[in-house]
Design goal:
Helix content is about 20%, strand content about 30%. The protein has about 700 residues and is an alpha+beta fold. The two termini are about 40 Å apart.
């Protein structure tokens, strides 16, 4: 291999191998993004002074700038009308609303934002269409949605083509769209890779969507749209836990104006009398810089404003154990006690009982929701108390959206079911479910639940609707489920909710609002896939949301443990099988992980390309530019012939000095930010890894 020439080189010798070599490469320094506080709307009345007119500057986007550029508008937000639309009775809303009665509602102040509603009403007391918008006060971002209400005694004309987002951007058909697949299982089981990041040019039409009614069961409903000319763009998140679709296409043939629409496809809904519905929610924010600046702005707002509070605080990535992928239905009180005895003192925070604790087991018993007393003769509180004595909190699995034939729920309330699917629109069904969950949470002092969703709901939703009410069943079921989860969180504010849907097939803005972490993929037995998932998933999501488990087949080595350091640290380990040396290794690495895990929700950079190749290194950087702290995690698989990697670190302060800690007890080294950012040359032996913690005063 030919040596690469560099202008200067300094070698920093560590007390033990591998060595760190810091190189200064000839390249332009990276600009740090600085977000100015968004200007609040002085009056919402200007939003619709005429029909659906909109001045984007009033939404607080004018304050975005970089450290070297004066404030300048982003070309993606120059549209002069509300960035949403619908068709009513075959006519576009823009043609109707100029003649509909408009009501501007008083602004509502919150600690983080100002909320506005503007309502248009069909003449004669008909349909009420409200555009609801929340303007964030600490960054240039808004969230908005449509709300429709029929106050009359007859069904309305049909609503169709309801676009929660309808944006036109001139000269953007040459723009770049950065997007990702959802939490799938990957090529190891015949599906596309999970969280595979793609970049698409938009000269031709492109569609992102959910599949079969689960929101990330094809594409992740988050994306970054970048304009190379202005070095700026927007990030978008879609909040809908069913079927959604986003389309990117020229506004007209031969046009260079890009039209971006997003919503729930297939709606043709004559709204019944007295019914209120809403569209998906849209998060839209503006950034300046490269596409990764947009990704990090998205990660920050998701963590700061959407990831659910755990009590009165934002959750840290948890350390947990789950029995399912090792023991499946073979779970019992004696087995769990044996596992807890062997895991005590290692640093685990949650010990989670997955499916199989109820009569009938998984799958046939889903819907019984009665404790299997043969497996748990002393009830759940006994095993919960045992876990607490070992320093751990108990977790429990639920899947409340379906009931298998012959189970208790199916026998007692067949009217609540569509096939095996629970009709979450029925208030009595939701109350029964909440009471059932509360019983077990209270009895077992449960402090973590896995909230699973192992079915495709779209086909049954569609069968329930008539041609005149297409979309209603989906909307009412999803809104009912949101109400149930909101009540559950209100009742148990310290309950950690892990959302799951046969892996990470239901990750969207609204589920993030109601969860603390997600099971990211059912492909958890392969660490190659796990590393790729964390490389891609962190591009759009805070690290706390990307949970998985270390497979039971792992020894585990430092390399295997570090392979999961970019998300919550979970285990499926059969603890009694580990010898003392392995337990000491796990104990040490859990302690290391807890020292750096807070950084997983800060800015993120993949230092090497995403890969599922055994021969390729993997490296991640998580950095808090404000606090002057970062962590670099690098892994060389045993199969890789590459002895070293040159890593270009990002978002460090060139004028500061950083203490570089290898987290192994060896002395730290003082290195300037300029040297670190110029280039980090890292040598590793096959099958080894390195965790470097960087801090500055």
């Amino acid at each position: 291999m030919k040596a690469r020439s560099v202008r200067s080189q300094r070698q920093v010798t560590c007390c033990c191998s591998p060595q760190l070599v810091l190189r200064t490469f000839h390249r332009q320094a990276l600009l740090l993004q600085v977000l100015a506080i968004a200007v609040l709307l002085p009056s919402f009345r200007a939003l619709a002074a005429k029909g659906m007119a909109l001045d984007w500057n009033l939404l607080g986007f004018s304050g975005v700038q970089t450290s070297s550029d004066a404030a300048k508008p982003c070309p993606l937000i120059q549209q002069s009308t509300v960035p949403a639309s619908f068709v009513y009775g075959g006519q576009p809303a823009a043609d109707l609303m100029a003649t509909w009665k408009r009501t501007d509602h008083p602004a509502v102040e919150t600690e983080r934002s100002r909320i506005y509603d503007i309502t248009w009403q069909e003449p004669g007391g008909g349909l009420l269409a409200t555009w609801h918008v929340e303007v964030f006060s600490d960054r240039p971002a808004v969230e908005f949605r449509w709300i429709f209400k029929n106050p009359g005694s007859q069904a309305t004309k049909p609503l169709s083509e309801v676009f929660a987002l309808d944006l036109r951007a001139p000269e953007m058909t040459r723009g770049r769209l950065v997007h990702s697949s959802g939490g799938l299982t990957g090529p190891f089981t015949g599906e596309p890779s999970a969280f595979l990041v793609s970049e698409s040019r938009l000269a031709s039409p492109l569609t992102l969507s959910a599949r079969l009614g689960r929101s990330s069961n094809k594409d992740l409903p988050f994306f970054v749209l970048h304009d190379d000319t202005s070095q700026s763009g927007i990030y978008v998140g879609v909040g809908w836990s069913g079927q959604w679709q986003a389309d990117f296409r020229p506004d007209a043939p031969q046009s260079t104006t890009l039209r971006v629409t997003a919503g729930m496809p297939g709606m043709n809904l004559a709204l019944p009398a007295g019914v209120t519905i809403r569209s998906p929610s849209i998060l839209l924010g503006v950034y300046h810089g490269d596409p990764e600046s947009g990704s990090n702005a998205l990660r920050r707002i998701l963590y700061d404003h959407y990831v659910a509070l755990l009590g009165d605080r934002k959750p840290l990535p948890p350390v947990s154990w789950n029995h399912w992928f090792t023991f499946h239905n073979d779970v019992s009180d004696p087995m769990l006690r044996q596992q807890m005895d062997a895991a005590a003192g290692l640093g685990l925070e949650y010990f989670c009982i997955d499916a199989g604790w109820f009569d009938g087991g998984f799958r046939a018993g889903v819907g019984n929701w009665t404790l299997d007393r043969a497996k748990f003769p002393h009830g759940l509180r006994s095993i919960s108390d045992y876990a607490a004595a070992k320093g751990m909190k108990l977790g429990l699995w639920f899947e409340i959206g379906r009931a298998e034939p012959g189970t208790r729920l199916a026998r007692e309330h067949p009217e609540w079911l569509a096939g095996t699917q629970v009709k979450m629109a029925i208030p009595e069904a939701r109350q029964w479910i909440l009471d059932m969950m509360s019983h077990f949470i209270d009895e077992g002092h449960v402090q973590w639940i896995r909230y699973d969703y192992n079915f495709h709901p779209l086909e049954r939703w569609d069968r329930l609707d008539s041609p005149e009410t297409r979309g209603l069943s989906q909307i009412q079921d999803i809104l009912g489920e949101y109400e149930l989860l909101d009540r559950l969180r209100q009742k148990y504010p310290e309950l950690l909710i892990e959302s799951c849907a046969s892996g990470g097939r239901r990750i969207d803005l609204e589920t993030i609002r109601r969860a603390h972490t997600f099971w990211k993929s059912d492909e958890s037995s392969n660490l190659i896939a796990a590393r790729s998932q964390e490389t891609g998933g962190n591009r759009f999501l805070p690290g706390v949301l990307l949970n998985t488990n270390l497979p039971a087949a792992c020894t585990p080595t430092r390399f295997e443990l570090h392979s999961l350091f970019a998300g919550p640290l979970g285990f499926a380990t059969d603890w009694p099988r580990l010898d003392a040396a392995a337990k000491d290794r796990v104990r040490h690495e859990i302690a290391v992980y807890k020292k750096i895990r807070h950084l997983l929700d800060k800015d993120y950079y993949a230092l090497l390309p995403q890969t599922i190749e055994l021969s390729q290194w993997v490296a991640w950087e998580f950095v808090d530019p404000v606090a002057g702290e970062a962590v670099v995690i690098a892994l060389r698989p045993a199969e890789s012939p590459r002895e070293a990697a040159d890593l270009q670190l990002r978002a460090l302060n060139e004028t500061k000095t950083y203490q570089v800690d290898r987290m192994d007890g060896s002395p730290t080294r003082a290195v300037s930010g300029r040297e670190l950012q110029a280039g980090l040359h890292l040598s590793l032996a096959p099958g080894t890894s390195e965790v470097l913690h960087l801090t500055s005063p």
